[in-house]
Amino acid sequence: MDTYRVGIIGGIVFGILPNLPIDDIIVTVCMAIIGTLSSFFVTVFLKWVDRRIKKLNEE
Question: TM spans, by residue (predicted)?
Fold first, then answer.
């Protein structure tokens, strides 16, 4: 990778990072965890419902 590109990306990241409040980072991480877990549980639930419906249709 080009050293200029690494320098520019590093400058942007380390220039923005100190300006982000820690509260916003914590809220973002918590919301991502909640979104991931809810998506996972809804997918598991819908697969369970689909299996139940298929099982009822076979009888």
Answer: 25-46
Count up the domains in the chain and report the number.
1
Greatest CA separation found in the chain? 67
- Is 14 contained in some domain? no
> pLDDT tens, 1-59?
678 888 998 888 888 888 888 899 899 999 999 999 999 999 999 999 999 999 988 87
Is 8 among the domain residues? no
Distance between CA atoms of 22 and 37, rounded to whole angstroms?
23
DSSP-based three-state secondary structure for 21: coil
In terms of residue numbers, what domain contains 31? 21-59
Residue 53 falls inside a structural domain = yes
The total number of residues shown for the chain amounts to: 59
